[in-house]
Amino acid sequence: MIPGIRNLCCRVVRLGTLILLTLVFYEAKAQYQQIQYGLESSVYAADAGSLPFWFYSNANGIIDPSSTNFTNHFFGTFTRHDSTRSVQFSGGIDAHARLSGDNTIVFSQLYGQLQYHGIRLTAGRFYDPMGLNEHDLSMGSLLVSRNTVPVPKVQLGTDGFVLLPGTNGQLLARGMVSHGWFTEKRYIDNPNLHQKYLYVRYQHDRFDFTVGAAHNAVWGGTHPGVGEQSPYQLPSSFSDYLKVVLGQSASEDSDNVPDNEITNTVGNSVAAYEGKLGINFEHFRFKVYRLFYLEDKVALRFRSPWDGMWGTAIELDNSNGFVTKILWEHMNTKRQNAWIDDPYGRTNYYNNGVYRSGWAYQGKVLGNPLIINRPVSGFDGGHYPISNNIIVAHHIGIKGKPLDRLTYKAFFTYSRNYGTSVDQGEGPDYIPLDDLRTDEFSSYLKVNYNIAPDYGLSLNSSLAYDVGNLYADNRFGFQIGIRWEQRSN
Questions:
Q1: Which domain of life is it from (predicted)?
Q2: Which of 145, 148, 56 minimizes the C-alpha distance to 329?
């Protein structure tokens, strides 16, 4: 996208957000409205200075992992619904002021939303994890998790799964397409983000089955040039955008096209095939899901069928109990399209030869946080930012409500880490994968107690512990916070 058009689009998304927020707060014919707002303050500390893994991972990019944190969080959402026209306006804000080794103010959410029947238009920055994972207990999707601050974008999609007409209520679909902008300093300046997915669900009284595919692509922007070559614009026209949407290669006669975008596809893709089965029993629901991870055309033909994620969960119908839901996930990213005799990890997940900032935003990966975006434990990634993407991991998540006012959530994560293909070397200097293996175990427990439910006042505290050789030291930390929340109609 040429700079003039890009600047115009950025103004449009800002204006669109402002218009949507204005409609939210001033729609006069609303039949129903709800306001939710509150404040939360927390302290995070650790014995070794650096915080344990689960304090800063999947935390929306709010927590500084390298020091003690004191955070103050203001949040608010507003919804107005006009039942006479089936129109709903809403908006939200999440603002965080952090005192740490890197003092900052972060707006993790600032958005406006317009919904008509089952279609939603959203503009701004908002939480939007992607994939069929059980996100409340997951280690994080390989596509998009809540590991970093959301990328600002404009999104058009369905309101969850919607019924397809003429199917007797048995077929549903969920879809989305969005366009976003990477706003921080990157190797490629000002690239765009394209996202889309489509899932179809068959629904029965006793079970449901969902299949679909999701696609993300970083594309366009200004390349800094190599050697004496001046900065130049990567493919950014509307026809290039259509190639990104359709997953097509760039034309050989196009200007300033990297070779891999001619042999592969335009931009840096992160995608997946997914499937999920849910079975209803008398007192609980059983779920199992599978994500086949994809980064290039070869992967579409299942070159690495075992790469991706498995998950299974049991969720009890009774929401009160010591255990109300339990999840197990398994992630494997070893093969990465390598042939049997090749070093594993050849595709170098989340890294890219052109878009060298990788599948990351604001210093953290956009997908699964076990894939690390910085040097660690002898793994430096070479000239790529992602230092550890060959991983086998197991993760257990549990939550419950043992008392009327007390809830908890616990994680237990074990990973075998092998760095990247760079660490294996080539030829006579080749290092076997097992010689690179580094094991790590991370645990986490968070407890929330409503001390004054009538006043929306609660206390929360958490403990986290890392044991292993992936990080420099074993790490133990604690968090304590207080939260005040109000809701009015």
A1: Bacteria
A2: 145
Q: Can you read off the two tokens belonging to residue 357?
A: 């900032």
Distance from C-alpha of 416 to C-alpha of 336, rounded to nearest angstrom: 16
Note the pTM of the prediction, 2 decimals. 0.89
Q: For tokens 């306001």, what's the residue? A: 35
The CA distance from 184 to 442, in Å, is 30
Hey, what amino acid is at 408? Y
CA separation for the pair 351, 342 (Å, rounded): 19
Q: For residue 331, give the H/E element and its range.
A: strand 321-332
| Separation CA 444–CA 451 (nearest Å) | 22
Q: Give pLDDT, residue 418.
A: 94
Phi, psi of 246 (to 5 degrees): -90, 0
Three-state DSSP state, 69: strand
Euclidean distance between the first and final Cα of the chain, in Å?
Answer: 44
What does the alpha-carbon distance between residue 115 and residue 42 come to, in Å, rounded to a whole number? 34
* 3-state DSSP assignment of residue 488: strand
The structure tokens listed for 443 are 């645990």
Q: What is the DSSP string of 174-208?
A: EEEEEEEE--S--SSBS-EEEEEEEEEEEE-SSEE
DSSP letter at 300 equals H
Q: Please give the pLDDT value at position 298.
A: 74
* pLDDT for the residue numbered 428: 74
Residue 269: closest CA among 182, 365, 352, 357:
352
* Locus of tokens 């959402």: 77
Cβ contact 123:16 at 8 Å? yes
Q: Are strands 268-280 and 406-417 parallel, antiparallel or unpaired?
A: unpaired
Q: Using only the alpha carbons of the chain, give its radius of gyration.
A: 23
Give the integer Cα–Cα distance in Å for 386 and 417: 13
DSSP strands (E only) in 83-139 = 87-99, 104-116, 119-125
Q: Which of 149, 160, 16, 24 is nearest to 91 (CA)?
A: 24
- pLDDT value of residue 244: 86
Nearest to 385 by CA among 368, 404, 410, 360: 360
Alpha-carbon distances of 100 from 54, 72, 179, rounded to whole Å = 17, 12, 33
CA 384 from centroid of its chain's CA atoms: 21
What is 376-428 written as a DSSP string?
Answer: BTTB--TTSS--B--EEEEEEEEEEEEETTEEEEEEEEEEEE---GGGG-SGG
pLDDT tens track for 393-440: 999 999 999 999 999 999 999 999 999 988 888 777 888 889 999 999
Cβ burial, residue 394 (10 Å; 0-12/13-18/19+):
middle
- DSSP structural state of residue 130: B
pLDDT of residue 28: 43
Note the pLDDT of residue 5.
46
Q: Find, among 466, 460, 465, 458, the residue nearest to 446 by Cα.
A: 460
